[in-house]
Amino acid sequence: MIAILGAGHAGRAMAGDLGLRGAPVALWNRTAANIAVLRARGGVEVEGEVEGFGRIRLITDDLEQALEAARLIIVNVPAFAHRDVAERCSPYLRDGQLVVLNPGRTFGALEFRQALTAAGCTADVVVAEAATNLMTARSTGPAQSYIARVKHAVPVAALRPARTQEVVTALGEWYPQFTAAASTLETSFSNVGAVIHPAITLLNAARVENDQGRFEFYMEGISPRVAGVLEAVDRERKAVAALLGVEVQSLVEWLASAYRATGSDLYEAVRANEGYRGINAPSTLEHRYILEDVPMSLVPIASAGRAFGLKSQAIESLILLAGLIMDTNYWTRGRTLESLGLAGLSPGEIRRIAAMGT
């Protein structure tokens, strides 16, 4: 059994796709009302790159029931819910289970493991994270999902790198697109959502509010100058990763490997990505592109940069702008080295923690 935790855009799409592939799936969601139609229909109607009705064996709001027979557990919730999900899972996890955050955003696996430990979980489980969502998908109805694109390659790593191949093998039975990364530091800093989502949303804030998302986010929300901001954020992401001894792809390189979209620069590469076409902007600024990607992606990257003497001006400017627009201090709400218990450690010590899983 594969347990999918979270029935939002990503979780519903993956559950439906796995159902179409014949996988035994348990789909859990915290709020019963949000899965009532799914439960009544017994699965997900999938369209787009994948077509058909994906039957789901178990659809439930009972987490113990969802986890009971699962060896592979895929967490498809926004990163700001990782800690809560870890605490909820803690009493029901057992030795040998594989927990994969799809995705972890930045330092997701470290936070999930920290939360399990704090909750008193003693089960020998492997905690891993993917660098990004496997699918670009949107829910189009209470039991419908549109999958715009299944990415060609997604790195994944376990907190204990020696266990990464276990995770890749389990995922690979259904999705060979998952490839082994060297460590969760690599997957954390391969988080391209940090580069793409907040900048485009914030630089189109008036349009989001005035038009309620009635424009194509990637195709119309980006221009050559907006792409220039993304390039600055991308350079800083790579620079902070390098401070921790990690080499990651640029956004342009990632677009080529994940989507096979290429161009002479970032602007052209984004617009060449057929998987982005038809995806509308958020209808409100109260959206995960800010609520998730600022505190759980930009803040931890900037926090690590500050700790090791690099001020990430473009990233910190977006954090400040998001805070002003949303009237929120994202530094206090986000993942930082302090909140993860990593403050004062050297890059080498952080690499060792990521390698040992504790």
Present the secondary structure layout.
Blueprint: E1 2-5, H1 9-20, E2 25-28, H2 36-41, E3 43-48, E4 52-55, E5 58-60, H3 63-68, E6 72-75, H4 82-89, E7 98-101, H5 108-118, E8 126-130, E9 135-141, E10 144-150, E11 154-158, H6 164-172, E12 178-180, H7 184-189, H8 193-203, H9 205-211, H10 217-220, H11 224-243, H12 251-259, H13 266-271, H14 288-291, H15 293-307, H16 313-326, H17 330-333, H18 347-356
Parallel strand pairs: 1-2, 1-6, 2-5, 3-10, 6-7, 7-8, 11-12
Antiparallel strand pairs: 3-4, 8-11, 9-10
CATH architecture of the largest domain: 3-Layer(aba) Sandwich
Order of helices and strands: EHEHEEEHEHEHEEEEHEHHHHHHHHHHHH
Number of helices: 18
Mean pLDDT: 95
Number of strands: 12
The structural class is: alpha/beta
Overall domain count: 2
The largest pleated sheet is described as: 8 strands, mixed
CATH superfamily of the largest domain: NAD(P)-binding Rossmann-like Domain
CATH C-level name of the largest domain:
Alpha Beta
Shape: globular
Q: Termini, distance in Å?
A: 27 Å
Strand proportion, as a percent range, falls in 15-25%
Radius of gyration: 19 Å
What's the arrangement of strands in the largest beta sheet?
Answer: 5-2-1-6-7-8-11-12
Poorly predicted parts: none
